[in-house]
Amino acid sequence: MEMSVITAGILGAFALNNWNESSKDEVKKEALQRSLIAEFQGNIEQLDIVIQRHNLAIESGREFIRLIVDQEALPTAKGDSIFGQFYTAWTYDPRNGALRTGISSGDIHLLDNDSLLILLFNWEDLVADAIEDEKYAANHVHQDLNMQNRNVEWQNILPEMFPEGTIKKSNYQSLLADPEFEYFVTIQIIFSTNAVNELDLVRESNMKILELIEKDMKN
Predict the structure, then answer these.
(1) Phi-psi category of 91—alpha, beta or left, where left has phi over 0 and alpha has psi -120 to 50?
(2) How confident is the model at residue 75 (pLDDT cuts 50, 70, 90)?
(3) Residue 7 φ then ψ, to 5°
(4) Mean pLDDT in residue range 205-214
């Protein structure tokens, strides 16, 4: 009888300890889920802005090509507006703090959805591929700055950088007649389009991650 009491006590202690550990894991899991939701909601907001800016640059580049092909006159004010949208170098910079903490601590394995875990472990590689394509476009812009300065008055495009500059009119007719500019625009459209295609995949993954986490929290 005494042995039975001791055995029952030991088993009860193990059960209580297991319950405590399980309870702690549930708290950690919920905290991680909430942190990831906040992080990936912020990421999607930034991502939508970046994709929008890339699409505006693509549309502006296509407008430049149309003007070149049609040999259409381009007023300075309109040219400055198109050029300001086209000549951008945006790159996506997501927050990954909660994800990295979850992986380094091992808490990420508290998420028992295999599809979600695959997406989370592949996330940073997916983002890196997209940013690499964005950097091609950004570097292409930076390398071309000197060539465009002879026709474009930058204080009209970026007045915040030239607050006391003398306002002059850009020579868009010469710019549009320059074969090098047409080549630059064509290549930039390609780089930006590739970047958007990669970012669309990132966005799809981001939305799926949010969907799976929110679904798991409801279960």
Answers:
(1) beta
(2) confident
(3) -60, -45
(4) 97
Q: Count of CB atoms within 10 A of residue 213's CB?
A: 21
Cα gap 85→64, rounded to integer Å: 11
Average pLDDT, the chain: 84
Tokens, residue 74: 């381009």
Fill in the amino acid letter for 77.
Answer: A
> What is the per-residue pLDDT for 88?
80
Residue 165 CB partners (closer than 8 Å, separation 6+): 155, 159
Which amino acid is residue 116, in one-letter code? L
Note the pLDDT tens digit of each residue in 136-167. 888 887 776 555 556 666 666 655 555 555 55
Q: Tell me the three-class secondary structure of the chain, residue by residue.
A: CHHHHHHHHHHHHHHHHHHHHHHHHHHHHHHHHHHHHHHHHHHHHHHHHHHHHHHHHHHHHHHHHHHHHHCCCCCHHHHHHHHHHHCCCCCCCCCCHHHHHHHHHCHHHHCCCHHHHHHHHHHHHHHHHHHHHHHHHHHHHHHHHHHHCCCCCHHHHCHHHCCCCCCCCCCHHHHHCCHHHHHHHHHHHHHHHHHHHHHHHHHHHHHHHHHHHHHHHHC
Which tokens go with 77?
A: 């004010």
